[in-house]
Amino acid sequence: MNRIVLLLSYHGKKYHGWQIQPNAVSVQSTIEQTIHTLTRETIEIIGCGRTDTGVHASQYFAHFDLNSKEAIQSKSLNALLPPDIAIQKIYFDPLGEFHSRFDAIQRKYIYKLNTNKNPFCVDTSLYYSYNSTLDIKKMNELSHFLLQNSSFQSFCKSDSGLMQFTCFLSECQWTQINEHEFEFHIAANRFLRGMVRLIVGACLNYSKDKFSLQQFQTAFLAGQSIPHAWSVPAHGLSLVRVIYPDNIMNRLVSI
User: Fold this and answer.
1) 3-state secondary structure at position 229
2) pTM
3) What is the rounded distance in angstroms from the CA atom of residue 218 to the CA atom of residue 75?
4) What is the pLDDT of residues 23-38, one digit of tens each?
5) 53-75 confidence digits (pLDDT tens)
6) Active-site entry in 52, 93, 123, 135
7) Furthest C-alpha separation in the chain
8) Fewest C-beta in 10 Å: which of 62, 91, 142, 182?
9) Is 17 helix (H, G, I), strand (E, B) or coil?
10) Is 103 in the active site?
11) Sign of the C-alpha dihedral, residues 109, 235, 134, 131?
């Protein structure tokens, strides 16, 4: 068997996230079915992470095993895939050991927000009409506090079933692109389910004075839900970068 690695991107609007879901269309199931059509092999593709329904990815890695690596080419695969999924590169791992999820050492997300109604951003940016209460200085006050901590139980969905809530953040920052556009950048070794959207919601609610910094810190350090917890809509969120150790990436061979 040959270990095949895909570098891809997708627009998540029409999909129930990356992972296969019962009676729902996912990015994973769409790619698996397309590869089967192309190669006549039944494969199981493993992604670098689980993105929720409606979340996008401009850089995403996945791997699977195939009997013949000559049977797959990016041009042929892209021709069969829908327009909202694109294969950027295909690699072969001579050692057969690449694991898209467990080998990743950093992932980065960006959440986009727009205070001016813009029909061209409707699928990729949150229209936030409360621009008069959008205080980027306050939002970064919360972000900088989070950057100094590593236990994120307060930002994990209650039905996740997780027992380990440690995430090491390397970036957590709001930035203003122009008068109406804002972005939240966050990078870490791993993320909990729903974590980024809950953090964005907390920052926006803090900007609207729905709770004090002390109330936030008390709840966070106790691992409790943040006051007025809000998971912002998924369409503003994109996975933009996944990093692997150099020695792993350097051994991959382009197909």
Assistant:
1) coil
2) 0.95
3) 53
4) 899 999 999 999 999 9
5) 999 999 999 999 999 888 899 99
6) 52
7) 59
8) 91
9) coil
10) no
11) positive
